[in-house]
Amino acid sequence: MTDLPDWLAAKLPANARHQGLAIAALGDAKTFERGGFTLSSPAFREGQELDPCFTAKEEDAVAPPLEWSAPPPGSQELIVIVEDASSTKDEPDCHWLVWGLPGQKGKLLEGEVPPRTGKNAVGNSEWLLPDPPVGETRHYVFQIFATDLPLTLMPGASREELIATVKGFVTGCAVLYAPFTGVEADLGMLGDDEFE
Length: 196
Prior knowledge:
It is a single chain. With 196 residues, this protein is mainly beta. The chain has one domain: Phosphatidylethanolamine-binding Protein (Alpha-Beta Complex), CATH 3.90.280.10. It is 9% helix and 26% strand. It has a five-stranded antiparallel beta sheet. Strand 3 (77-84) and strand 4 (93-102) form a beta hairpin. The protein is globular.
């Protein structure tokens, strides 16, 4: 699915251009990277594979760390949505739905529990560990939104509820893209000789 506006399509590789991405509904050319607003991670560069320690392929995996620059003036709150753009459904699978972040430069540490989270694609409020089959590459789009109003959504809200609440109030937005190719799981199994 590649039917995305030019301002967004230019930022994402062809395999990550799902027309149902939240940013396609909430962002526009005016708010995209407005005032230098960007999203990054100290754990991976734009387009670099996610480390297995952030996926279902490793035991004790956690959400990756994220950092963002100062949002546009007047921003009250920040929202992070992570989606799998490889989905063939109308909407990409939501891996993380976070809000309640202060409208300023900041970060989420590796494995940090955010202030408020909503339901991911399987209905819980945690980082949904990427788990593609061995050899299959899936494409994850990390999206950040700044809004000019604080959200009153209760924890556990759905992606649809959040998008409906935020639509029309976005002051700035940005994306960070990372693929992940399925590998054999490393569940830290100890060999018998390690117990001796």
